[in-house]
Structures are given as structure tokens and as C-alpha cells.
Amino acid sequence: MPQAAPSNALTLLDAKALVAAALPFGGLTEATQTALAESFEQAHYASGETIYAAGALSDDLFIVARGAVRLQRKDVALESETIVSRGSAFGWTALAEGAARRNRAIAIGATVLLRLRGAKLVDLAANDPGPGRISCDDVIAAIRAIQQPPPARKTAKTATPWRLQLKLFQAGEWLRSPKPYLMLLGYAALFGFWHLAVEVLRLPRFAEMPGPSDVFREWISDNPIYGVSLHTSVYYHHILISLRRVALAFIFATALGVPTGLLLGWSKTFRDYVFPLFEMLRPIPILAWVPLSIIMLPGSELPVLFLTFLASFFATALNTMLGVKSIDPSLALAAQCLGASRWQVFRHVIAPGALPFIFTGLQISIGVSWFSLVAAEMVSGQFGLGYLINTSYTMVQYPTIVIAMITLGAVGAVTSVAVRLAGSWLMDWRGRHLATSGAR
Amino acid sequence: MNAQLRQTVQRGGQTSLRGAIEIVDVVKSYDQGGASVQAVDHCSLSIPAGEICMIVGPSGCGKTTLLNAIAGFHGIDGGAITLDGRTLCGQGRPKAEIGADRIVVFQNGALFPWKTNLDNVAFGPIVQKRLTKAEAYEKARELMAEAGLSGHERAYPGELSSGLQRRVEIVRALMNDPAVLLLDEPYRALDALTKSVMHEALLETYYRTGVTIFFITHDLEEAIFLGHRVVAMTSRPCRPKRIFEIDIPHPRSYDALTSTRFRELAAEISACVDEEAIKSFALGEREG
User: Fold this and answer.
1) pLDDT-based confidence at residue A231 (cuts at 50, 70, 90)
2) Which residue among A266, A308, B116, B284 sits deepest, i.e. has the most Cβ atoms within 10 Å of its Cβ?
3) Contact flag A338-B172 (C-beta cutoff 8 Å)
4) Distances in Å between the alpha carbon of A24 and those of A13, A118, A141, B267?
5) Same domain assignment for residues A295 and A420
């Protein structure tokens, strides 16, 4: 509850200045302004105290004399918060007789408010002889108009999700830009050249190569010549097996690679032990690992997983390490200054600071994992798109090779986009930063 | 703020305030490409609690080395530094412990870009477990409102102008009730207009809190406008060459800049600093 005014109360002069600054009634006569200032009472609120609740009957208008006030609003569609600082007025609904409060008002810190009955203000303004009366009447009329319940259909419209609207708008912009048409032209150039070289000009080295129409016909056929098409379950089986292997390898590579990279960047001791070894193992091509992994790991599935994992792991760990090194050292010092322990510095500065580089690493990692998966599937394992390419080659089923290749490209692109989306979702701060600095 | 505190902070030196720094005979050298370079040489300086002490001197003279020693970012080779009678570093303890009683505001700013401004400000008390999260956010909102930062709570630092960012950073420091603020050319990158706004905001903060301020700068106007005293340093190795009392009464406003006394002090200090800058330039010191 408001307490009694203490001795260091505001003077009438202070109150008058506040009233003149906070209320948009500049044109009122001197006498009315003084009367206004005199009729304001002071109210004191402790930090966190509720001044009024939403929905309460509004009778008082307030001006913040000291401290600040938070206005919280909860509607169906939105939740918002406004801070009213010193010298501003709030609680305007008091001017609309009998209206309910739209916000909840809470004091921030010890707050001193000037309080006036809305009816009193309306009364004083109405009896003012000067020209300010008109502007005052306008303000009061405007506030009353806001208080009228809006027509039902309008609320329904504001409730439509703005995210969807934004997406639709972006899609429209994209279609209006030259981008999609240039993209189509690029595809058309490649397929056109392929069609010309194989099916029209029949260039010498392209004799064995299946043309686009052969491949397409095979791909959509109900009864494919070589057994693999959109209508056969074996096609999806190959895709699923490959996807599962990449997913498993990628998850393991991330789970091990990110911590390894963070440690490499963060701990000098760990780096001194491990980094030279790391740098020697990293350049060894995946294919060179094939014999050893087949000899040492049991079954046919584990060697494939291990090979796929390996390249991804190195890409992730190295980029994570570079990410840690890219962090401005004053950020870690600042965190220490503010009392963060070594572990808290790691959690609040090192890990989030390395995130942009980590996601660059994961982008590379997902690409590399498809690359090494196919290499691994061609020499070991059963099923999978790499295996399909290899067996189709030995069995002279050339259209199937091309089908598997294009499928690989499409599935790989989808996983890559998924990683990028995950990154921008986790690094909201970065997107907003770039958006406001105009760098994108 | 009440009149009594205003009077107390007007000239610093009152025992009721925290933040008295004694720098006694501090020596510090470091390695530069195999050669030992003396950065600070038998430097002594006494800063009373609640003083705004401005440090000016040529580039690379070792001012930052001194600040880093107080903050605990690196050790000293000899001498001692105490804070309110407690030894930070000295005999048997070359490096001060980094602590929230002395908070550094960095030249290029060190807000965490991945945390909202509110999370940045509330960071100190939360990691120290001095306040619960709810309390810390409440206090953070309060201090941000006082500093005119209301409405920026949910934004990220990258969405603010650099002047506002610096203000958030000072509020983040004040959240910990520090005894000393260590500022290392915090306004160097700001344009002149923003700078003057920042100066008035810093003074206002100071009048409210009475925190001791150790402020390194190249800008003599800034030094005279803000400081109780301006300490001109020698070129490397660094030690106080002359200490100027700035007898313009606090609280100051920007009118002080046009007063005759201000001009006199500026001429005097500039003559003293220029002499060192020429020496330093002749020695081929690099910026920094």
C-alpha cells in the first residue's frame, strides 16, 4: 500500500514542472496548470509493489517523480512490457470514465508517484478558459476511443500468426527477385548440355553414358529395368541406410569433436599433448584408413561408421578450436572480473563464443561425412547409396548410378540446410546483430 | 543522492568510503622478443577512496600495465598494491587475485554479444551466487532504468549504439558494488558528441555511488573535465611525473569546459604531457 509522504517531499514547484512536462496540455492557462499541480497527491511505493492490477477500475492518473514503473500487458495475441521512467505519465485509462486498466503496473525500485483523479483532471480542463481546452478535449476523446472494445473481426485478424505472414512475404519477395529464375537457368544449362552431348550429338566419350531421358524414365518407372526406381522399396531402403549411417557418424563426431576442440582451444596443456598428434592424423585420407578399419573392427557396419565418423570428427574439432581462439580475450577477463569461476567462464564465454565457428565446422563436417560414407560404402558394407553405385557399376546398370548420384546430392543438400537452420536458431543473437548492422 | 554523500564525494578522501588504492614502488618488466623491457619503474601513487583519478601519458608508456596489475590480469616484479589497506599484490604474492571489487571497463567493450543486455548486467551477482536470479534481474532492471537504458533489456548488445553499449557495461560493473572502477580508455572509439554525453552520465553515476575511479585516457579535456586529479606519467618506464589537482568544484557541468581555469589547466598539463610524448616518440614506442 502507498505509505505516508515523508519529510523530503517534492515541492509544489517540482510538481508543477513535472506536470507541465508529462501532460500534453501545454495550452492550458497558468491558473489551471497551478490548480492541476496542486491537486496531485504524492504516493510512495516500495520496489516490486503493485500499483494497480490489470482489469481494475481506473480512477487515477500517475506521473513518475522518482524511480520507474513497469507496465505489463497480457492479451490473447501478445505479451508486452513497457517501462515508464521519471517525468512520464501513465494510467491514461483514468480519463475514460469507468474503464478497466489494460496493464498491470509495478514499481521498479523505490518509486514516488504523483497521483490525480482522472475525473478531476477532466473537470479542470473543461473549465479552462484558454485555447488549451481544445487540445485537452482531443486527448480525452482519443483515450475514450481506444477504450471502446474493438469489433470482433479485427481481433481475429491480429491473432493470425505473424511468423506465417512474414514467411509468406519472404516467399513473395523471393519469387519477385531474379534468384529463382537464375537458379532454373543454371539447372537447365547442365541438363541441356547433358541431353545434347549424349542424346543429340552423341559425343564419342559419352557413348556409355545414359542420357537424361533414360535416367528419368528409369527413375519414375513402375517396373524399372534395373530394379531401382521411385516405386521400389529397395530405393528407399538404400537412402534410409545411408542416412542412418551419416546421422550416427555425425552425432558421434559432434559429441566428441566439439568437446575435443573446446579443450584444444581452452587448455594449453591439453593442446601441447594432443595437437601435434592431431595435426599428423588429420591429413591422412579416409581411403587410407579403409584396410586397417576393416581388419580391426568387427562386422561390416562398424568399419563404415568409423570411416564416416573420422573425417567429420577432425573437421568439427579443428573448427571448434579455431572458434575458441577467435574469442576476444577481454571477454574472458571481463567474466573473471565479474566473479566467474574457470568453469563459468567456459560455460558462459568460451562455449557460446565458439558457436559460430562450431557451426561452420558442422557444415563442413556434414558434407565430409557424405563424402567419406560413399567411399566407405563402396568398399565395405551392404546397402546404402554408395554401395548401390558400386554394384550398379559392376553389373553395368548405368542409369541406376546416375539416379543414386542425384539422390545423394539432394539428400546431402537437405542435411546441410538442416544443420544451417539449427545453427541460426541457436545463434539468434548473431542474426539479430547482423540484421541491425546491415551486414546481411 | 543526499547532500552529505555529495559532499563526501566532492573531494574524495573520506574514510567512510571504500576504494582507497595505494601503489607503492611498483616495478614491472616484460619480455619483448628476448629483450627485457621495463614497463613500470618504481611507481608510487596514492588514490584516496572516492576519487576520480585520471591517468594520462604517452602511448605505450605502461599505464595499462599498471591497470592490469591492479585488476590482477598480470603480476608485478616488485613493490606492492593495496586496496583499503588489504594487500592485493606485493611481497610473496606477485599477482593480485581477480575480484569483483575492482571491475575493468575495456577499451573496445567486453559485453557478451550472445547475452541480452539484461543478462549481461545480471551476470556478476548470478555467477557469484550473491543474489538469486529473480533478485539479480530485479536489481538489473532498476539500475538500467536509472541509467536511462529502459527498453533495451531484451535487446542484444550488438543492437545498441557503442555509446549505449558502454553505458550497459558500466551498469554491469556497478551491479557488483565495486570499490574501484578501472577504465582503460573506454570512450576512445566514440565520436565527440557521444563522448560528452557519456562523460555527464559517468559523473552522474559517480555522484550517486561515490565509487573510486581509475581512468586511463589520452584525451586531456576528458581528463580535466572528469578528474579530481590528473596524473601525468613519464614515457616508459612509467611513473608519475606530475600530479595536477583539478580545483574546479564538483558537481561539474559542461560549462566548466569554457572556464578560464579549465584553459589554464589544459595548457599546463598539455605542456607536461607533450614533453613526454616527444621523448616517447623519439624512442620509437608503438601505439598501445
Assistant:
1) confident
2) A308
3) yes
4) 18, 15, 14, 48
5) yes
Surface-to-core class of residue A334, CB atoms within 10 Å of its CB (0-12 exposed, 13-18 middle, 19+ buried): buried
How many domains are there within chain A?
Answer: 2
Q: Is A30 part of any domain? A: yes
Q: Which residues of B touch A107 (CB under 8 A)?
A: none
From A348's Cα to the closest Cα of chain B, the distance in A is 9
Residue that finishes a domain, picked among A150, A179, A206: A150
Q: How high is the pLDDT of residue B16? A: 45
A108/A252 same-domain check: no
With cut-offs at 50, 70 and 90, classify the pLDDT of residue B12. very low
Domain range holding A351? 218-436
Nearest CB partner across the interface for A349, out of B112, B151, B173? B112
Please report the pLDDT score of residue A182 as a whole number.
92
On chain A, the residues whose CB falls within 8 A of the CB of B116 are 429
Closest Cβ opposite residue A432 in set B98, B151, B156: B156
CA of A145 vs chain B CAs: smallest distance (Å): 27
Handedness of CA B87, B93, B97, B102 (dihedral sign): positive
Q: Is the same domain home to A107 and A253?
A: no
Task: Among A116, A150, A184, give the residue marking a domain's end.
Answer: A150
Q: Does any domain span residue A263? A: yes
Q: Is B287 exposed, middle or buried (0-12, 13-18, 19+ CB in 10 A)?
A: exposed
CATH label of the domain that carries residue A288? 1.10.3720.10
Asked if B212 and B180 count as a contact pair (C-beta separation under 8 A), the reply is yes
Domains of chain B: residue spans and CATH: 1-101+178-255+268-274 (3.40.50.300), 111-177 (no CATH)
Write out the H or E segment, with its range, that includes residue B233: strand B229-233
Nearest-CB residue to A436 (from B108, B114, B158): B158
Q: Do B128 and A348 touch (CB under 8 A)?
A: no
Chain A contact for B73 (CB, 8 A cutoff): yes
Q: What is the dihedral of CA B262, B265, B266, B270, to 10 degrees?
A: 180
Q: B183 falls in which pLDDT band (50, 70, 90)?
A: very high
The verdict on A145 and A234 lying in the same domain is no
Q: What is the pLDDT of residue B124?
A: 92
C-alpha cell at A396: 553395368
Interface touch B98/A337, C-beta < 8 Å: yes
pLDDT tens digits for range B39-88: 888 888 999 988 999 998 887 778 888 899 999 998 888 888 989 888 88
Residue A164 has pLDDT above 90, yes or no: no
A32-57 confidence digits (pLDDT tens): 777 777 777 888 888 778 888 777 77
Q: What's B54's DSSP letter?
A: E
- B38 min Cα distance to partner chain A (Å): 24
Closest-CA residue to B189 (of B154, B226, B163): B163
Pair (A115, A264) in one structural domain: no
By the CB < 8 Å criterion, does B138 face chain A? yes
pLDDT of residue B60: 72
**Is residue A24 a part of any domain in this protein?**
yes
Q: Are residues A244 and A135 in the same domain?
A: no
User: Interface of chain A against chain B, CB under 8 Å?
Assistant: 47-48, 67-68, 70, 82-83, 85, 108-109, 328, 330-331, 333-341, 344, 348-349, 352-353, 355, 427, 429-430, 432-433, 436-437
Same domain assignment for residues A139 and A237 = no
List the grid coordinates of A143.
Answer: 483515450
Specify if A205 maps to a domain: no
pLDDT tens-place string over residues A349-395: 999 999 889 998 999 999 999 999 988 888 877 889 999 999 999 99
Is the same domain home to A234 and A127?
Answer: no
Closest Cα in chain B to A341: B127
